[in-house]
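Everyone, describe these structure tokens:
***
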Amino acid sequence: MRFLVVGAGFSGAVLARRLAEAGHFVLVVDERRHMAGNCHTERDAESGILLHRYGPHIFHTADREVWDYVNRFGRMMPYVNRVKAVSGGRVYSLPVNLHTINQFFGTTMGPAEARAFIAAQARGDITAPANFEEQALSMVGEALYRAFFRGYTRKQWGLEPTALPAAILKRLPLRFSYDDNYFSHPHQGMPEEGYTALVARILDAPGIALRLGCRFEDLAEDVAHVFYTGPLDRFFDYRLGRLGYRTLDFEEIRAEGDFQGTAVMNYCDEAVPWTRISEHKHFAPWEAARFARTVCFRERSRLAGPGDTPYYPIRLVAETRMLSDYVALARRTRGISFLGRLGTYRYLDMDVTIREAMDAAAATLERLGEGGPPPVFFTDPLG
């Protein structure tokens, strides 16, 4: 059969590869002139540094099958994400760990003592946190919340922390050890040649045709089915309104030598307009020493408008209501399946994106074997 996959990021590439391996022809299109979506990486012509053009992406997973899959197409080099944060004119480690606690409070506590200390700081009267702020106060108390979470969250989301769901903070660990690894997954790394090279290898298979700089709306292809990884609301020409996203603006910094000594530095104080600075040669520590110059990007977050790159789905009450209407509309549409971060309007890490694309391919082949069409959604966007 002949299929169309819209989007040459991880979702589209992994799905297309599996369908092609099963003997189908797959046309993959992307309106950008590069593969890998927001994970796109490229060598900077002036410095030679491998840049993450849409912000840093660190691969981490507990899914061994997904880890083996990416290693099939690119060598994953060891990389541990160690985030630093500036608060009140001092530098700390994130996530909040024993070093952060001792440094912030000027103490030398051990794990048990620090655990009891933070329990005393935390708001014990909040037993069922209803929002981000209540979740933070119930975890770490007022002082740490205001130092590391409140200002950064207001800058990142443009909203009061009381308006955000508690689940956002539940993803961040609180450690009573000196472990400063931002992630706890057993498999972590960076592709040696970058994400774009990795995705290019996934798409390099008999039965796959790739067209870059090609808008789905401009196509008139005769295909059996469309797999769409673009924005769900865009597919329907925004007829029910625009789903809300946060976008990022990047301010480039070029300098000699080393600018900040680490890959990511968060800025927690609300008075500082940017959320973080990323120094990209530190995302490839195996080659960083050979670069005489450095390239960094300051990030600022704002509400996405028409024409902006969508990064983070907002998914508050109004958006969830609109999403429900779009999902109902999609379920009445024939010949189309939606998947991926934009197609399901969900925040997805790269490993989850790959896992869902692998599962979508398996479900598609099973449905085809039964003589039926692929499902409209492989994962419920409202679930």
Remarks:
- The CA atoms of residues 38 and 54 lie 5 Å apart.
- The mean pLDDT is 96.
